[in-house]
């Protein structure tokens, strides 16, 4: 048993309703101070097989459980999450370095909401029967089977439960592989789910490295759905592993999203939206890291941005007054800094930031804004996934749209304008799974979520989640003889 932020956390896997160890462990390190906080069971092919076997055995009973009973248990899980919000917030802050105030106020309450939303959506899921030449068509959503869910480290529990909740609601069983840098709250969730009455084997957690446990899991012939959030290279490996069995995939990948600011925008709002992109130390896939600003207001926008960004308080995320915490891991900080130093070498100029925070040391990286990058430069086209933004200017609407769409990604886009007609014209032409107009990060679970181009494959949320996690069936019945 590990004790993290005063909370007891089981370091073993959760397979078939039991804690399971492994012959090897890996060290979980807190990004706050780079100190070890737990030794975690390190799974491999054997643990992946055991988890899939447990999920497969549990599937027949769980898939036949009534919708009402599945919904009741999901609400009970949400109740358990709400009772332990402080524990979950403390542990996740220690594990991934995100702000304690965000975990308390938004992230962990959203975890509970994920379960409640899909429990309630399940009860109203349906399609009206329709007639074909006197024959009745009836559409149903049949549980698919064992689902392998592979989740990232930047918002571990919230992003995991975006997948877990609809998969369980649909009547599937789940094997979750959390990111090796942030495994702890997944372990806590397993205990919460068991206490809520979720049957053994319906939800399983296997911990470890991607190649060692994720590879066997995604290549397993008994896995019928794979949902992954992470990088494009990993997604390619998962797709290759799934291909022999034609296992359906849902992939939410990287982004290089734009924030397009027109001269008719509310400039205070636009600056607020821009500085908000440093949220979670820039470790947000949806972040609008490319600031595209109309030339006529670029100087004023930049001045206001620098002034507001200068008020960001960086430091220990356990302090409720902190605005920005550390990067997740030494390897990740070095990756972010590599992008920054190469951008400088290529002629871009850092108006603010441009390196680690020497005053804080450790994994703290200063909020950075680049200008003057050459067209097609790496810093403009590749996802950094850190507190690094770029500023470019445009003169016409056509130019703004071309610049916004000028990467291989298409996850999200943000638009600041005071003209509703312009908003309509521009949003119609932006390549993105989500577009925000004069706002950012407003996310409703009934809306489709996913990316275009190399930002992903498929959509989840509302009916779209059930469409993915189920096999849709249409039953056609001839008229009955009287």
Automatic annotation (TrEMBL):
GO MF annotations in UniProt: oxidoreductase activity, acting on the aldehyde or oxo group of donors, NAD or NADP as acceptor
Source species, domain of life: Bacteria
Listed InterPro entries: Ald_DH/histidinol_DH, Ald_DH_C, Ald_DH_CS_CYS, Ald_DH_CS_GLU, Ald_DH_N, Aldehyde_DH_dom
CDD domains named in the record: ALDH_F8_HMSADH (cd07093)
List of catalytic residues: 252
Aldehyde dehydrogenase domain span: 22-474
Keywords: Oxidoreductase
PROSITE patterns, A to Z: ALDEHYDE_DEHYDR_CYS, ALDEHYDE_DEHYDR_GLU
Family, similarity comment: Belongs to the aldehyde dehydrogenase family.
Official protein name in the record: Aldehyde dehydrogenase
UniProt organism field: Actinomadura rubrisoli
């Amino acid at each position: 048993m590990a004790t993290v932020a005063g909370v007891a956390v089981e370091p073993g896997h959760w397979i078939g309703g039991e804690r399971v160890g492994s012959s090897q462990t890996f060290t979980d390190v807190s990004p706050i101070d780079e100190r070890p906080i737990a030794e975690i069971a390190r799974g491999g092919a054997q643990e992946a097989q055991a988890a899939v076997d447990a999920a497969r055995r549990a599937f027949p009973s769980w898939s036949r459980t009534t919708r009402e009973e599945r919904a009741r248990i999901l609400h009970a899980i949400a109740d358990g999450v709400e009772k332990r919000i402080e524990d979950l917030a403390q542990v996740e802050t220690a594990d991934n370095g995100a702000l304690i105030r965000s975990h308390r106020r938004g992230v962990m309450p959203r975890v509970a909401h994920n379960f409640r939303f899909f429990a309630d959506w399940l009860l109203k899921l349906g399609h009206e029967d329709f007639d074909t030449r006197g024959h009745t068509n009836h559409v149903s959503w049949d549980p698919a089977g064992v689902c392998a869910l592979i989740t990232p480290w930047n918002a571990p529990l919230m992003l995991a439960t975006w997948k877990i909740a609809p998969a369980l609601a649909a009547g599937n069983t789940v094997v979750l592989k959390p990111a090796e840098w942030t495994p702890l709250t997944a372990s806590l969730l397993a205990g919460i789910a068991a206490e809520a009455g979720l049957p053994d084997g319906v939800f399983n957690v296997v911990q470890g490295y991607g190649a060692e446990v994720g590879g066997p899991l995604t290549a397993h012939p008994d896995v019928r759905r794979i949902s992954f959030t992470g990088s494009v290279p990993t997604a390619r490996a998962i797709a290759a592993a799934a291909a022999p069995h034609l296992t359906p995939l849902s992939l939410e990948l990287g982004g290089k999203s734009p924030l397009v600011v027109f001269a008719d925008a509310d400039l205070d709002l636009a600056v607020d939206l821009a500085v908000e992109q440093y949220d979670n130390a820039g470790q947000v896939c949806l972040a609008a890291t490319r600031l595209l600003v109309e030339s006529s207001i670029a100087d004023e926008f930049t001045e206001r941005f620098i002034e507001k960004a200068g008020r960001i308080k960086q430091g220990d995320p356990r302090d409720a007054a902190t605005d920005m915490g550390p990067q997740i891991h030494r390897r990740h900080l070095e990756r972010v800094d590599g992008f920054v130093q190469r951008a400088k070498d290529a002629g871009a100029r850092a108006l603010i930031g441009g390196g680690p925070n020497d005053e804080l040391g450790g994994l703290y990286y200063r909020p950075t804004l680049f200008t003057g990058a050459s067209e097609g430069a790496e810093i403009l086209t590749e996802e950094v996934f850190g507190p690094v933004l770029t500023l470019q200017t445009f003169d016409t609407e056509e130019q703004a749209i071309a610049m916004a769409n000028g990467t291989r990604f298409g996850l999200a886009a943000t638009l600041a304008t005071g003209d509703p007609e312009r908003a309509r014209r521009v949003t119609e032409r932006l390549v993105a799974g989500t577009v925000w107009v004069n706002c950012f990060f407003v996310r409703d679970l009934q809306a489709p979520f996913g990316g275009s181009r190399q930002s992903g494959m498929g959509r989840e949320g509302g009916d779209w989640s059930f469409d993915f996690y189920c096999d849709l069936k249409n039953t056609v019945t001839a008229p009955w003889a009287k």
